[in-house]
Amino acid sequence: MTDKVCLIIGGGRGMGAATAREMHGRGYKLALMSPSESCEALAAELGSVAHRGVAENGDDVQAVFDLTMKTYGRIDAVLIHVGGPPKGDLLEISEDDWDKANAMVVKPVIRVAKLVTPVMEAQGGGSIVNITTFSAFEPSLTFPTSSVYRVAVSSFTKLFSDRYGPANIRMNCLLPGFTDSLDLPQKFADMSALGRLARAEEQAKAAAFLLTDDSSFITGQSLRADGGVTRAM
Question: Are 133 and 146 in contact (CB under 8 A)?
């Protein structure tokens, strides 16, 4: 599979970096973007290319897309992993922060889809994975804007899968629980049925499953990898 290419938005640290390593191990060529130099350092380590930028900036997304196509000429898989949006008491969150959350969480998914879908159509298929959160299933007042807008991503994912499934382009969401790439207190580990935080490498394996042909008949889904934090059926 040395001709296959994976573009990772948010591929400098944590789950994004772990997924980059996992996909590299599976023979994929990589293009990475993150807000800091971490994506550049990881790209140098893995023999890949990188562009420093943020997902809510359309020019940055366009730049990493252009870099990927110029370098490799194709895109087979895309992971979109954005940072956490603003938090606060539900009705105390400003309208500007709600708008910022939308710009951080929903718009990058749409923006990336518009860029890569024609490429994948010409190639005969591809896979897009959006990392969201377990609170897309069970909203939490701890993460109000995330809970609201990650659900919007799940809805867009279903609509996209219906529209572009006939072109063999799949889109799914990965809903992680609390992960060790964040500095979290023990109470968050205790919330999981397994009594621990997820390892970033575990989330990367779940992401790689959805990004590759291992999940070739799965699309429009939201896969919870939360260690049993959510209770809803």
Answer: yes
